[in-house]
Amino acid sequence: MEPIIQEPEGPEPEATRRDAGITESTRANRGWWDRNADEYQVEHGTFLGDDRFVWCPEGLDEVEAELLGPPEELKDRAVLELGAGAAQCSRWLAAQGARPVALDISHRQLQHALRIGGAFPLVCADAGVLPFADGSFDLACSAYGALPFVADPRLVLREVHRVLRPGGRFVFSVTHPIRWAFPDEPGPEGLSVSGSYFDRTPYVEEDEQGRAVYVEHHRTLGDRVRDVAASGFRLVDLVEPQWPEWNTSEWGGWSPLRGRLIPGTAIFVCVRD
Fold it and tell me: Alpha helix locations (H) across 178-231?
């Protein structure tokens, strides 16, 4: 199946800031990723590769970062990837001898995983209600998947804690919270504070009827740390990747200009004791 960019139907959605609960956020984001998966893979597929493990737009690669541990220790480890998209990270994990499971809420994203191929399970499910038994996995990971889009991140964190074995590690990357105080623009206009960092009102895109078609939720850095701790994890590292000289790409609001001045990504490394 070759990707086919689906033309948007009707007028562009209107962006606003308003409350959006669990059900509305889930429905909106499942629909958004199903509609936009083709365009996303066309636009970002080359940067992500088919079988690389890239944590963020800065280009931090698990080969170098080893946030899940040394590659040689991944062999035979059961790994859950949340918000897997086309399962690029799971494909890299499988190449190291791990036993990944790629989970995504979007059926269309997982169709792209099928298109690229790979001998590991693909699961279409909500990260807040994981369809796995307790203690099923040794490791879990999420590169910009699930956590930014859920109204209650502790539901996801507690589910991941449940399905991990004692000593298991969960590593996830999200937009750095400080970015919410700045316009989402790659140029100089994205360097001036435009809102309060402490305003946790979700970003919502609405259709003509006022229904949410995309929702993203803001948590401060302190909120994220408290969410991790309240869900039973121990935070062992917080990585803020610097923008590398080799990366000349722009990805939405990420760019060399902004990346060299303010952080764009936060990666939380958590352990289930």
Answer: 221-230
The confidence score (pLDDT) of residue 11 equals 80
User: Alpha-carbon distance 238 to 216, whole Å?
Assistant: 21
The reported pLDDT for the residue numbered 4 is: 42
Residues pairing with 214 in the sheet? 205
Q: Where are the alpha helices (DSSP H) in 164-273?
A: 221-230, 256-259
Please state, in angstroms and rounded to a whole number, the distance separating the CA atoms of residues 158 and 139.
14
Give this prediction's pTM. Answer: 0.94
Q: Which residues contact 168 (CB under 8 A, 6 or more apart)?
A: 137, 138, 139, 140, 271, 272
* CA–CA gap between residue 212 and residue 29 (Å, rounded): 9
- In whole angstroms, give the CA distance from residue 128 to residue 114: 23
State the Cα–Cα distance between residues 234 and 229, nearest whole angstrom.
6
